[in-house]
Amino acid sequence: MKFHRSRGFSLIELMIAVVIVGILAAIAVPSYQNHIVKASRAAAQTELLELASLQEKIYLNSNAYTPNLTGTYNGSTAANNTAAAGGLNRPAGTTAGCGLTADGKYELCLNIAAPAQTYTITATPVAGKAQEGDGNLTISENGLRLWGTVAW
Questions:
Q1: Under 8 Å CB-to-CB from 81, ≥6 apart: which residues?
Q2: How many CA atoms lie within 13 A of 102 on its CB side?
Q3: Which end of the chain is more exposed for a tag (fewer CB within 10 A), N or C?
Q4: Enclosing H/E stretch for 124
Q5: Residue 152's pLDDT is what?
Q6: Does a structural domain hold residue 72?
Q7: Long-range contacts of residues 50-57, Cβ cutoff 8 Å, at least 24 apart
């Protein structure tokens, strides 16, 4: 009896393997992209909480919140007028007076109500990134945290 050695894959076997890989990729890629968006949103929420904590520390020292997001805090706020107001040390964003998150996927804007006793920090997704259309994240001095209109 003579045995024949297999010399490779047949075309049908190769096509079946390609179809299986294609189906797995069609399921995995959108799931991975959603995971990346959620992870970036969670990172932005963490940064908002850090900024709110910094604002509270500044308030304890100066009796006012700083209106500056991008400068380095120097112990001065607009309320005590001893020098130019220090900031929260974030990289500058595309909008004047706004900064960026560490990953650059959200733009952070600070809204201070005179006389620097209330604030709202808003994280808006940067256009052209995966976050675009994901909704704004907001935190204020009273602890209100919103994702669009829903609390987070």
A1: none
A2: 12
A3: N
A4: strand 118-125
A5: 72
A6: yes
A7: 51/88, 51/90, 51/108, 51/121, 51/139, 52/121, 52/139, 52/141, 54/88, 55/88, 55/119, 55/121, 55/141, 56/141
Distance CA 145, CA 150 (A): 8
Within a domain: 29: no
Give a yes or no: residue 136 inside a domain. yes
Would residue 5 count as lying in a domain? no
Q: Which residues of 32-49 are buried (b: 16+ CB within 10 A; e: fewer)?
A: eeeeebeebbebbbebbe
**Assigned token pair, 108:** 């952070």
Return the residue matching tokens 């976050």.
Answer: 131
The model carries a pTM of 0.76
3-state SS, residue 126 = coil
**Residue 128 belongs to domain spanning:** 39-151
Residuewise pLDDT in 10s, the chain (152 residues): 667 666 777 889 999 999 999 999 999 999 998 999 999 999 999 999 999 998 888 888 888 888 888 877 765 555 555 555 677 878 888 888 888 998 889 999 999 877 778 999 999 999 888 888 888 999 999 889 998 877 77
Rounded to 5 degrees, φ, ψ at 42 are -65, -40
